[in-house]
Amino acid sequence: MRISSGKWRGRNIIAPEGKLKPTSDKVRQALFNALRTKIFGARFLDLFAGSGSVGITALSEGADFAAFVEKDTQTYRALRENLYQLVERSKYQTFRSDVNKVGNLLKEESFDIVFADPFYPDISAYLIPLHREAFKLLSEDGLFVLEHGKKTKKEELEGLEGYQETRSYGDATLSFFKKN
Fold it and tell me: Which of 19, 54, 79, 172 is the least crowded, having the fewest Cβ atoms under 10 Å away?
């Protein structure tokens, strides 16, 4: 797996075999094209971080700081190694935790962009709590971006606070929510 854009473009990162459903290069590229005017200087939160490819790309694209939340121990080790190899320590923070507890871990923090890519083919049962946790951590005018599969109904998404739009890229879909 490689960083797809920014100052570390082309650099390899490690990911445990069979443990992840990584965000594809195509979707990462689309995500950062959509975030182009918002990413520079931003505070970025990568939920369900996996190997860290999305958050590391955010830093590569000019984000000032990124926090990463990953629950799986083996994957968390790979995430830490990737960050150690590429990123100045003051630019990131990692948490080995369940995403549902992130509000307590980061209650004093706020982020300009929160990205979540849960490892569920259908996130309907997790959608409302995940949205609630993300919105708690967003700064004013912050953006929550949710990557999900096609099984998630657009009506469910449209009913959530701050819904802006949904964009599809093959099997993956990005939904954008803005905190006003």
Answer: 19
Report the chain (180 residues): mean pLDDT per 10 consecutive residues.
88 79 80 93 96 95 96 94 95 92 82 90 80 92 93 89 94 92
Three-state secondary-structure class, residue 78: helix
Domain edges within the chain? 25-178
- Contact (CB, 8 A) for 46 and 67: yes
pLDDT of residue 20: 60
140, 122 contact by CB (below 8 A): no
Q: Any idea which architecture 25-178 has in CATH?
A: 3-Layer(aba) Sandwich (3.40)
Beta strands in 87-180 (DSSP E): 92-96, 111-116, 138-148, 163-169, 172-178
